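User: These chains co-purify. Model them together.
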Amino acid sequence: MIGSSKEKISQKQLTSMIILFTIGSAILFIPSFLANVAKQDAWISAIVATVLGLFTVLFYSKLYKLYPKKSYFECATFILGKWIGGAVILITYIYFFILSSLILWDLGEFLKTQVLVQTPIQVILILFMLTVIYTVRLGIENVGRTSEVFLPWVLGLFLLMCVFLIWSLEKGNLLPYLEKGVMPVLHGSYYLLSFPYLELIIFLMITPYVNKETKVQKSFLQGTLVAGGLLITTTFLCILVLGADVTARNTFPVYVLGKMVSVGEFLERLEIIIAIIWFLSIYFKLAIVFYVLVASLSDFVKAKDYRPITLPLGMLLVVMSPIMFTSTMQVASFDKEVFFPLTYIVGFFLPLIVYIAGKIKHKKRGI
Amino acid sequence: MKKILKIIIIFSLLIMSGCWDRKELNELAILTGLAIDKEDDEYKVTAQVLNPGEIAGKAQSTRVAVSTYEATGKSVFEALRALTITSPRKLYLSHLKLVVLGEELATQGIGQSLDFLSRDHELRTDFFILISKENDASSILKILTPIDKIPTSKIFDSIESSEENWAPTKGVHLHDLIAKLSSESDNPVLTGVYVEGDIDFGGSVENVERINSPSVISLDYLGIFKEDKLVGWLNKNESKAFNYIMDNVKNTVGVEKCEGGNVTLEIYETNTEVKVVEDNGLPKITVKVESDVSIGEVRCKENILGEEKLKELAEKLDKQTREVLNEGLITAKELQTDIFGFGEQIRKQNPKLWNKVKENWNEEGFVHLDVQIESHYNIRRTGTIKESFQWKASGD
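Assistant: Joint model of the two components:
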């Protein structure tokens, strides 16, 4: 177990953390990603990926059940030994670090292009990071409790948005189904499965805190199902309201979706609702990843408390994020060529190795 | 010490709220309309800006409610920034209601001037795009209008109300336009707008001081495009045909001859279905228009309200609609541009067939396309009276 062992998360809190994490930064980017490759079938991609996502988290909960009291990193060293396990941990840790910088960059990118155009990006990043650092210093239990408080807001606002959009739906946008065959749809699912479903591997680092072992699998499935539903609905709405072409061309199609709301000529300009949903979800995503980053690092150096390194690591992120990611185009190609394949390695292949080795170990001991 | 620090932090929250990108209202010039013309190789951008004191202020002077500024540049964006030389404040684009493109620019191609409109973060997407007919686009923004002090707001409302109640116009938003421009199976249309009367006079306050303004801005019918170039204008009937086929008609009127005069019908619900069938490897399209109408005005000698007579009337209407729709179709075929999105319908309903015929669609496939038009009218109501009083009078 990483961090402080006294902390406890309830099953409900874990579910809401998983939902917010999965929506995370994905909700703003995913419709565009999918529509780019799958065109008007983007929503089918989303459904396929979500089903695969459910299998993935089922696998994660099986992995968790091997050693419920151990975090993923501890599992890896325990099962694979110091060296191979260490390698697994190192790759995964680097991955988490890139992930957190990417989340921070996503936020900066959105604010810089859509809302606060003239504000220096550092100001946005520092303010946001400070909030995250503060939260993480209060402990993972706190993150869990806050997520429980904010989840109804996110879901409520999202529902509101959907209701307002009913007037602008055009079902003709969905036709024709599977115009270019199944491949583009699967290509879209490939993106969505890695971003965000395979990123859920990070929850194996905090599942040891959950107070009821038996409920973890339920949390995983419930959370993914709800968040997946939201992602599917969002993609579906984008295609229905904007059409595949506009969805693919915009960087933040969901934000454009918000701009389209017009009910009776007085209920307009609601795009900021989308921004609020997104701020909340991305805040939790970053808080969770950042907690794992600091807690596992302090664990590694056998420090008693992880709090002293929150500030330095946070500073590092604020600096690294603009250095690693310099432009919109660069991030797009980085995602495609480096990050998504890396996610498959870290989120699927490495855990698979750990799981298989763990099973063999169990068998040898005759359990 | 800690307490004091906390208090300071809380207080600073109160006084330091706000944001870096704040724009105070008194520093903004709120843009309501934008006209883009092409002059040689450069863009001439005309901006219509609100004069807030005249709109909301209590003591109103005789000064006009809006002002226009002009600038040229190599791109729309550059020209917009060049406006800061003449305009007193920086333009704020979020409240844009109207973009008027010059006819000359439209014939050369509108694609290049639209990129900025969809790329800039301040712009929303709920403005209408129009083509100025005959005059420069800039002249459209220089006419003062009665009732509504903001001319662009007048045009905006005109488009919305004529779209609701009068079939031949169509308000086009940026998204629709771009989607159609980038689709190989569809071509856009834009409503025309022109100035009736003297342009120079229209810009003076005198224009709105008279009960019957000499210069007014009027909507025209539809200008049709091939790819991004304006290739022609439709007349009233052809524009109506377009909107019928596209199922844009919400409410309109139709006039049909009868003995001794005519009868005007209010069409209050119409529904159009476009169906694609494959016939010998070629697409065949059926357009089915179904309308519910009520009688709006009767100027006939004889009683037309008998069941038989109404049936006859409905059949006449069917025939007339078929003719009108055909008229529009023929014009579009002559100009070789598929503005009805038949190609798009084929792609949606039968993608395999579309792949076979999509080559040179506008020039060949569309021109030779077999389109069957069916129309069916249901005369449902007769208004608040039944038989017309004219029949009694003439019967004596």
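The CA atoms of residues 43 and 72 of chain B lie 5 Å apart.
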